[in-house]
Design goal:
The chain is 22% helix and 29% strand. The chain is an alpha+beta fold. The longest helix has 25 residues, at 2-26. Bound molecules: zinc ion (2 copies). One zinc ion binds at residues 99, 106, 140-141.
Length: 316
């Protein structure tokens, strides 16, 4: 009897230990980043030409971006898909799209298979994009203009189904308002939206080029695959910091960026969880269904160079 009781207690201990192990291993970060060996492609999705209010014709714009070492480029002329057939892509992937501008806050239609007519109700536009017009929608430069409020937070909260927002827009450096929109990004992320953060030039002329870009993990160089990778969040936004490695293991994220000098980890409503000096960081999230539903990492380099990683959602 004595041996049997001891065995029973030992079995109970094993079961409890196993349950503990299961619940611990079930918690992890839902990271969009994949196999670290997949190459990174550099590109800008927001580019104007003489087909709208840009200063140079499309071929001159392509020549400039190709000369800067870009891998992909999208023309985003206002309410017009620029036809790139017959142009020399100079080795870059050209992604079809436009900037839907009339009647409401500006947005990018990335990977457009067909043009979507601007509608004052931006939900109608988003639904058409998701419903067969191809690609995905990005809400643009939310903090542009004297109001610092080109796209109101209430609009960003109400709209459903847009894949991303511009958290950095280069041309706003030359205009009024703020080029950065991480304030709205964190509030949108904290209220149930899964939205990726993009950085774009919004170039209208040469001085606006090479300010902000997206680094996309994509094994192949064709437009459909680059668009699919961005829609899945396999990219980071940058104004100069180059990220070398992003790994997750359970609730821990490791980031290496040789030209970074420090990092910040943010969570719901922008709260800063950690400030880390150096060119490598490791952080373990502590889940809290009310206060830590995601984490995201910002990397700071020399001068104003920065990189923004995509949010990693805490799996319950
Ligand atoms: Zn715009
Ligand atoms: Zn624009």
């Amino acid at each position: 009897m004595k041996t049997g009781k001891a065995l029973g207690l030992f079995t109970a201990f094993l079961v409890l230990a196993a349950m503990g192990a299961v619940s611990a291993s079930a918690q992890s970060l839902d990271s969009p980043y994949g196999d670290p060996s997949v190459p990174w492609l550099r590109g800008n999705l927001h580019t104007h030409s003489t087909n709208s209010d840009g200063r140079q014709p499309p071929q001159a714009v392509i020549d400039d971006y190709a000369g800067r070492g870009y891998d992909f480029l999208m023309f985003s002329d206002h309410d017009k898909i620029t036809d790139t057939a017959g142009l020399d892509a100079k080795g870059m992937v050209l992604i079809p799209g436009d900037e839907i501008s009339a009647k409401g806050p500006h947005m990018l239609h990335v990977g457009a298979k067909e043009r979507v007519e601007p509608d004052a109700d931006r939900q109608v536009v988003i639904d058409k994009i998701n419903g067969g017009a191809g690609g995905f929608a990005i809400m643009n430069h939310p903090n542009w203009q004297d109001s610092y409020n080109h796209c109101d937070l209430a609009v960003l909260q109400k709209l459903q189904g847009y894949a991303g927002m511009e958290i950095f827009n280069g041309v706003v450096l030359f205009l009024t308002g703020s080029e950065v929109a991480t304030d709205k990004w964190d509030r949108v992320l904290s209220t149930g939206h899964r939205v990726w953060g993009f950085a774009n030039d919004d170039s209208h002329d040469v001085p606006h080029r090479g300010i902000a870009w997206n680094m996309v993990q994509c094994a192949t160089r064709n437009a459909d695959d680059v668009v699919a990778a961005m829609k899945a969040g396999r990219f980071y936004a940058s104004t100069g910091v180059k990220v070398d490695e992003i790994r997750t293991d359970g609730l821990t994220v490791t980031v290496k960026a040789a030209n970074a000098q420090s990092f910040r980890v943010h969570t719901d409503f922008g709260r800063t969880l950690a400030r880390i000096e150096g060119s490598e960081m490791k952080f373990t999230a502590v889940p809290d269904p009310k206060k830590c539903t995601y984490i995201r990492v910002e990397c700071f380099g020399a001068g104003e160079a920065e990189a923004w990683l995509q949010p990693m959602f805490v799996k319950p």
